[in-house]
From TrEMBL:
This is Ring-cleaving dioxygenase. Residues 7-132, 153-271 form the VOC domain. InterPro entries: Extradiol_RC_dioxygenase, Glyas_Bleomycin-R_OHBP_Dase, Glyas_Fos-R_dOase_dom, VOC_core. Keywords: Dioxygenase, Oxidoreductase. Pfam families: Glyoxalase. The lineage of its organism: Bacteria, Pseudomonadati, Pseudomonadota, Alphaproteobacteria, Geminicoccales. One of its GO terms (molecular function) is dioxygenase activity. It comes from the Bacteria. It comes from Marinimicrococcus flavescens.
């Protein structure tokens, strides 16, 4: 069993309109845009990052907004829901806020003793807010959401699978512990994590296969402290016969990827160097930053990428 993974690092979803995506995560949910860059593999498309004040691992939602993408459909083999932690007693306030802007809310519910509010993002993203007393992570305090109501970061993700046994075994290998079962759900928790500590597996044998598109999670990333820890994780996964990629430099972290038995794409990302490596911390996410291999495209990209307001 590994002991290097510290919880979630980021979650990356696919979207349509970049401005609509930006407005929802910054103006509605109150996250800070900490980086405006492009997709490494498709530089004509933005890669937008939203999180806390500095984009701490465990707080960062990222998006690939493809302008002409078709809408995804929920099903088995995907991250069906991303949950954020909010202060205790705030779900009523959040329900009113979300409904005021026309977001689809799906009611409050209990899960493993926690109160949660499920809702959909502008592309149909499956999202939830979970009341977590005592979460010490500081919400972004300079946005439209008061700090005493703000998002602390991720609580966790829910994977919807036809069969959860093999993926559950993988999570235990990655250092997660199965702690509880409730109907079709099994909860896995990482000990001494970064606050984004939970992975729930929902087994729905009759669910259709998920179809990726706008509103779908592309991948979920797990956090490790540094390069040495990542190499240790990669070696163990490779020896366990997972098809792990080489280490890829993503400028703000280094990443490895592999496909889970249930079909979900996992990433393991380093905590550093962080989003301030190429910007003043006071001005994160304001200017378009380009990976070195795409720097020569700046003039064309600045003409072709749609403008995004703050």
């Amino acid at each position: 069993m590994l002991n290097r993974i510290k919880g979630l690092h980021h979650v990356t979803a696919m979207a349509g309109d970049a401005q609509r995506n930006n407005d929802f995560f910054t103006r509605v949910l109150g996250l800070r845009r900490v980086k405006k860059t492009v997709n490494f593999d498709a530089p004509d498309v933005y890669h937008l990052y939203y999180g806390d004040e500095r984009g701490s691992p465990g707080t960062v939602m990222t998006s690939f907004p493809f302008p002409r993408i078709v809408k995804g459909s929920r099903g088995a083999g995907e991250v069906v829901e991303t949950a954020f932690a909010v202060p205790a007693g705030t779900l009523g306030w959040w329900k009113e806020r979300l409904e005021a802007i026309g977001a689809a809310t799906h009611g409050e519910e209990g899960r493993f003793g926690e109160r949660r509010l499920r809702f959909s993002g502008p592309e149909g993203e499956g999202l939830a807010l979970v009341e977590v007393p005592g979460d010490v992570r500081a919400p972004f305090a300079r946005g439209p959401v008061p700090a005493e109501k703000g998002l602390h970061g991720f609580r966790g993700v829910t994977l919807r699978l036809h069969d959860g046994a093999a993926t559950g075994e993988l999570l235990r290998f990655m250092g997660y512990e199965e702690v509880e079962r409730e109907n079709a759900l099994t909860r896995y928790v990482i000990a001494d994590g970064n606050g984004a500590d939970i992975v729930d597996i929902e087994v729905v044998p009759e669910a259709p296969p998920a179809r990726q598109g706008a509103g779908s999670v592309h991948h979920v990333a797990f956090a490790v402290e540094d390069d040495a820890a990542q190499l240790e994780v990669r070696k163990a996964l490779t020896e366990a016969r997972f098809g792990v990629t080489p280490v890829i430099d993503r400028d703000y972290f280094r990443a490895i990827y592999f496909r889970t038995p249930g079909g979900v794409l996992f990433e393991v990302a380093t905590n550093g160097p962080g989003f301030a490596r190429d910007e003043d911390p006071a001005h994160l996410g304001e200017a378009l930053r380009l990976p070195a291999q795409h720097a020569h495209l700046r003039e064309r990209l600045e003409r072709s990428l749609p403008p995004i307001g703050d």
